[in-house]
Amino acid sequence: MRSKLVLAALLFLSTLPIYAQVAPAAKVGGLPLGVGVGVIDFDSSYYYPNLPYWSGRLVGVSAWADYSIFHGLGVTVEGTDLLGGQPKAVALPGQNLYGSGPKEATVQAGIIYRYRRIFKVRPFVEAMGGEGRIDFPSTNPFYTEETSPLWSAGGGIEYHAWNNFFLRGKYQYQSWKGFREGSGQTLNPSGATLGVTYYLRGPHRRY
After folding, report:
1. Confidence of residue 53 (pLDDT cuts 50, 70, 90)
2. Of 45, 68, 207, which Cα lies nearest the Cα of 134?
3. pTM over 0.70
């Protein structure tokens, strides 16, 4: 399921530059397209009010693709899979817990704005929406996972490392709007991503 979410994010972006399928091969490398991978470290952000609860950090991987449209403005898609560093669930004495995790996976799409480069550094901001899936420990053996719509906002910098490669660091805040809707419980993960983006168009070109 998680691998499908990540692949869906990247496949979505591949539909944007459809004209590239009929363009000469020599021009494909000029597309304003960037693809990247990285590692993520997020606060799981689930503490209360009901037991069982979990708190702590989750680590995993992220993949993204950006397509520039006009003067730094573009569209972006991202898929994440948080699998490692699973926080320990806290329950009342005598409670039996079912399921695994917590584990989180998301797929999102939205807009990105990259400011012009200052020396080798390029700031950016982004806003996205999509869907997330979480597996969690529960006292109910039939309720150990949930899918929820979500939105996120974030920003960071890219550093021109070499040729068409940029190092990327960013912070992102998520709000899972449909998580246990009506229960008073919230899920707002946040954290950092560190990775690298490869741009098909060279660094001397304006994105």
Report:
1. low
2. 45
3. yes
pLDDT at position 98 is: 77
CA 21 and chain centroid, separation: 28
User: Tokens representing 20?
Assistant: 């590239």
Note whether 193 and 170 are within 8 A (CB).
yes
The sign one gets for the Cα dihedral 89, 92, 98, 104 is negative
The angle subtended at Cα 123 by Cα 37 and Cα 67, nearest 5°, is 55
| Among candidate residues 5, 22, 126, 21, the one with its CA nearest the CA of residue 68 | 126
The 8-class DSSP code of residue 183 comes to T
H or E element: which one contains 171? Answer: strand 165-176
Residue positions counted in the chain = 207
Structure tokens at 67: 């397509």
DSSP 17-58: TGGGGTS-HHHHTTS-EEEEEEEEEEE-----SSSSEE-SEE
Report the alpha-carbon distance of residue 118 to residue 116 in Å, rounded. Answer: 6
Q: What span, in angstroms and rounded, lies between the C-alpha atoms of 2 and 21? A: 29
